Amino acid sequence: MKKQISNVSGHQTSKVFAISYMVLTIPLLIIGIIMLFVGGTGPGPEGHVGPKFPALFFLFAPLLYGFFGYLFTRLACFTYNVIAKRFGGIEFTLSDTNES
Question: Which residues form the domain of 35?
Answer without folding.
Answer: 30-40+52-86
